[in-house]
Amino acid sequence: MNSDAASVATPAQPPIRLGLMWTVLFTILWTWLIYSLPALPESGFPALGVRLLAHGLIAVGLWLGLENTALTPEQRRATWLVVMVPFTLWAALAWTAAINGAFRTGASFLPLLPAAILLPVIVGTPVLMLSKRVGQLLDAMPTTSGRKGAIFWNIFGLADFAVAIALGMAMSPGPFQLIVPDDPSMAVDTFPNVLTPAFVVPSSILLHVLSLRQLRRRSRAATV
């Protein structure tokens, strides 16, 4: 097959600018709706929409990545379920606890919000770093350009989360409060705001960990 035939057989890929344009337009529309309807954020609908969209993108991205591996169809389905079922149950548990006020200050003698932040990271990081199946999935992902910049960005993101978590715990009412602000702070321990520290932060930290593992594996492969 010559180059002309190959170019005809290969479907044209949509330009990156087009996807970026739609993302910008959607962001502008979403921001306008939130500011135009003050009751909308309080209803929790924007949080629900964003979480469901992110969840769906992760599920689709995971499946597309598995399709590029050498795993059998049965292994792909099993791997997808092993990842998505716990991830979905985790999201549902955090959402239910947030709606029922389980993370409110004084709702329990246990530090549930710090536990919601730290326990998934403590449990999930070794699993994601050591799993051979996850390694195969990462190897099938597209090569990352600008490796040093990507490593720096991931480390910066993790450091940002560490500072945010420490400041949040030090300034929020509870057993870990060390700073009492003059102005009343926003209700970070109530729905839907609490979903950010209770689910978004730890899941984002785990994604940073996966990204760093992929960059590390790429570096080893390039060296070999």
Can you give a write-up of this model?
The protein is mainly alpha-helical and 224 residues long. Helices cover 74% and strands 0% of the residues. The chain contains 9 helices and no strands. The protein has helices at residues 3-9, 16-36, 39-43, 45-67, 73-99, 112-130, 132-140, 147-171, 195-223.
List the helices and strands and how they pair.
Blueprint lengths: L2 H7 L6 H21 L2 H5 L1 H23 L5 H27 L12 H19 L1 H9 L6 H25 L23 H29 L1
Helix pairs in contact: 4-5, 6-9, 8-9
Descriptors:
224 residues, mainly alpha, globular, disordered N terminus
Mean pLDDT: 80
Shape, principal axes of CA atoms? globular
Largest sheet: none
Quaternary state of this entry equals single chain
Rg over C-alpha atoms, rounded to the nearest angstrom: 21 Å
Uncertain runs are 1-13
Structural class: mainly alpha
Range of helix content: over 70%
**Strand-residue proportion:** under 5%
Element-level helix/strand string: HHHHHHHHH
Q: How many beta-strand segments?
A: 0
Question: Count the helices. How many?
Answer: 9
Amino-to-carboxy terminus distance: 32 Å
